[in-house]
Protein 1
Amino acid sequence: TFCRGSIFLSPRPLPFLSLALAGCTVSHIADYDQKADVGITQLQKKTEAFRLRLERVAGTPEGNYTNYIATYDDIKVDLSSLQVRADALAQNRLTSEQLSLLSDSISAFEERHRTNGLRPIIVQESRKALDRQFAAILTLEVAKKRDLGEPRDTR
């Protein structure tokens, strides 16, 4: 015998029971965000072009940090915009954390450029690390897209 007040004796099942029986799934991660995907891809391209330019001029007067302050600022503004967007979406902690780590890496690279200048090998090594970070962020966004049942992205 079930006690009175249990969900089994209730004339109307509890709302969560109805959802469970209907086969609803609970998502613990934000949905795919096309604007974030496009923004991250554009930022990666901008950052890559910047690093290629720096690699060519590292160790020369043209590679001086003061020549690139505006470019660093531009990259930071784009990254800040993506961070604000990611932070505003519910259940988007992973993307937010990855963008924060990317921001830290770009800031560390800038600080190294500002205080010590750059050599080509430093730019090449940072390129590898930043590429891994961009790939991780984009992999997460593409995975969110697949979870929606949309066609696979063939970048």
Note: DSSP finds five helices and no strands in the chain.
Protein 2
Amino acid sequence: ISGKSVLDIGCGSGRLSKELLQMGANSLHGLDISTEMLDFAQEECRDFTNVTWEPCDLTQGIPHEDGAFDVAFEWSVLLHILEDQHFESILGEMARVASKYVILGMDGPDVMQETAYYKRRTRKYHIQTLENVGYNLISQRDVSGSLVLAVFQKR
């Protein structure tokens, strides 16, 4: 993260955006569908000048050029994308706008689970979807219990 430009997908309240900035991100651009959450994020990261915010419905694409960021980062956002078509499209968009890395925070047990509010896909599904758009898994680490941090590098 240090020295990299980072796109934070579904940045929410900015808690993890702040962590990424403290880790030395050269710049950070946060996207979230909720303008209210973006207001919270802006307040959370008020001490940083190298951060910008943008409302974005990820199911409509990411409005940035190919390779615009070194890293596209997502933590437990894709869990809330219920349709497989949108899930694959969002991962494809993350891969498109990232020039080097895609980092995913994958929730839960490595099983398929679905409710009216979330759809948990297997890690294999995440990995295969990114491999299909030119990224290889280079690191995978259990963070806490059922959370896995996965780093993918562009081929």
Note: The beta strands are 5-9, 27-32, 51-55, 69-75, 98-106, 113-114, 119-120, 135-144, 147-154.
Protein 3
Amino acid sequence: PERIRRFDPFSDAIDDWKESPEPTDMVTRAVPVDPSGLDLKRQIRAFEVELIRAALVSAGNNQTDAAELLLMPRRTLVYKISAYGIRDAQVGDPLTIQTGDDGKPMSFKDRIERLELRILKEALNRTAGDRTIASRLMGIQKRTLDTKIGRFGIG
């Protein structure tokens, strides 16, 4: 049977739940799939692709210049372009320079961490601080979430 991703009291979800190979923890099963997308990995990948395309547009598809705009090593940019299958970026918005709290331009890594922190906080807010449910909402392991919370100093 298909796995239940959402508890629906108006259907035969309970019957399907009993047949499901997933754990029998009802709290786990009652966590709705978030339609706005808190899937951490998917959100980060999409944001990385958007940043890389914007940098390539700004740099006229010059990878060296795009890497400098993103404040990242060129080899990392080349790897990500290949891994994500990004082709020449001809159309799109150019990269906007964001500055951090210190007034310096933010690196690629800093931008990704800022997005990650925002998603973590949102997931924890939606789950009233329940790390187990928040980790499932984001599609990551609880141990990974705990590590990230420690790294960002939140929680």
Note: Confidence is low (pLDDT under 50) at residues 1-35.
